[in-house]
Amino acid sequence: MDLKHRLEDLGKVVSDTSDQLTDPTVVATARRRWLDSPQAKPAASSHRRAALLLAAACAVCAMLVWLVVRRPTALSFAVGSPPMSGTVGEWISAGNEGSRLVRFSEGTSLILASNAKLRITETTPHGAGVLLEQGSVEASVVHTGADTQWALRAGPFDVRVTGTRFEAAWDPASETFEITMREGSVIVRGPVLSSERALVAGEHLRISVRDGELALHTSQPNARPKLAPLAASIALRQPSEAVSAEPPILPGPSAIAAPPRSPSTLAQGPDATATATTSDREPGWRELASAGKYKEAFAATERVGFVQEVERASSTDLTTLTDIARFAGRPALAREALLAQRRRFGARGRSAFLIGKTAADQQGNAAEGVRWFETYLSEEPAGALAEQALGRIMELSKKDSAAARSAAERYVARYPSGSYAGLARSVLAR
3-state secondary structure string, 256-321? Predict the structure, then answer.
């Protein structure tokens, strides 16, 4: 509410207070007594009473003005450069080629890494709520007092912040969360952790929800960040770390054949040949994807045939091929790799979530996104991505008021304080 409306409300309150405190017969009675009696004392007494009532009304008015003026306002924020006013609830993302800055009115800043995506879910006079959907973000939170209160949500993880600097990352595909502390402290809560965990400057925490693994390292607070490379992706997982029940299928001889040996190479002997072969051959798509070079990796798959690779790939390689296609901007091929993983290896849960996410975010097909998010919930109703899936269903159903309301009721019943709770309440209030 702006100042104009606040002052209008204040005027109404003062008017109502004045009406309640002042007896409308006082002036008439005083006038009659003045006319009926030569003595002015009663009139003076009535005037004194009216003056006291007026003084009381003025005191109430002054108190209300003081309350309105001192009432703290919620933080505002700007996005990008040049800065544009931000809106609570809207998605903020960084492109493939660079980062994006979000700066708050009290000085706090968030820097989104390439391909990161988040939104500000609420703002208060003392902080804000941030939902990190994917990627990594560098946060520098200003400590304005004991009531400073910030919260970051990343998948199933909650991070409570006062004033500090840290980097956080979440990969919904591999269900991996990381946080590196630079200054101050935070409290982390979520899966795998037996209880709330306090982290201080210099600590680096990595949690794999899927594998149920936790790793905590300590280093110098301002050392080089230990977050895994997220270039052009939110893939914290390296393909070599994925687990598969079957050995990977290596590319055919044509993909790894050494270049012809030149006469000079022959003259140098077999050792020189091996050296030339290793250093001169082009890296394959697995190596390029492992280095986060997804566009180059996709180009490499095209040289050998992406569809052919999908048909002969192991489950681990299909995960990598999915990432390559998604982050190279080829959602239809990513979908094919995910469907192959479900068809050939019986993958469930996460694969459905990724198909839904690809349909909604990259193909602009809200109905298909809802269908696959519902599939995820049927396959893993208590999975790590269940809250996000239900929140996305509610978000994607905004054109269907009945469906949106149904999703909102389900969400509030399961996650009354979740990241999409504000959106759910607004849907239910319509």
Answer: HCCCCCCHHHHHHCHHHHHHHHHHHCCCCHHHHHHCCCHHHHHHHHHHHCHHHHHHHCCHHHHHHH
